């Protein structure tokens, strides 16, 4: 079974890559990726020191586990932040099938970064709807 990435045309893929490159250049963001809920990477701008496949699978699994752990389905998780020693991983839903993963510098003011991510997620969500 193919993922969402295989169903997209090359123009839409180029737009995704352009937007991901733009958001990854935001001050404080170390790298980022768009990942399907099943853990497959759609596209990424991650540091070479990270295993992209493992990170995608791990973050998708964490997000699914958190959603499954909530007893009241009316409380929907919109994002998760996991702190590591050197950086934070920020995971948020783009839509029902896609997650955004952002690696953010540790101990940085998240306010402006989260505004940028929110705008990015809205733009990508609209693109994926078409």
Largest sheet: 5 strands, antiparallel
The ordered string of helix (H) and strand (E) elements is: HEEHEEEH
Counting structural domains, the number is 1
Unreliable spans are: none
Apparent shape: globular
Q: Your description of this structure?
A:
- The structure is a single chain.
- The protein has 130 residues and is α+β, with helices and mostly antiparallel strands.
- The chain has a single domain, classed as Beta-Lactamase (2-Layer Sandwich).
- Helices cover 41% and strands 25% of the residues.
- It is built from 3 helices and 5 strands, in the order αββαβββα.
- The two termini are 21 Å apart.
Key features?
Beta-Lactamase; 3 helices; alpha+beta; 130 residues
Helix-strand layout with pairing:
Elements: H1 10-24, E1 29-36, E2 41-45, H2 52-69, E3 79-83, E4 87-93, E5 98-105, H3 110-129
Antiparallel strand pairs: 1-2, 1-5, 3-4, 4-5
Helix pairs in contact: 1-3
């Amino acid at each position: 079974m193919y993922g969402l990435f295989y169903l997209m045309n090359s123009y839409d893929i180029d737009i995704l890559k352009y937007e991901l490159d733009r958001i990854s250049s935001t001050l404080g963001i170390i790298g980022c990726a768009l990942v399907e809920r099943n853990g497959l990477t759609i596209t990424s701008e991650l540091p070479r020191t990270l295993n992209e496949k493992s990170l995608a699978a791990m973050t998708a699994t964490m997000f699914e586990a958190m959603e499954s752990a909530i007893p009241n389905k009316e409380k929907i998780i919109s994002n998760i932040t996991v702190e590591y020693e050197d950086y934070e991983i920020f995971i948020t839903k783009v839509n029902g099938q896609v997650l955004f993963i952002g690696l953010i510098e540790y101990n940085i003011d998240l306010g402006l970064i989260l505004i940028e991510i929110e705008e990015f997620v809205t733009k990508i969500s609209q693109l994926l709807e078409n």
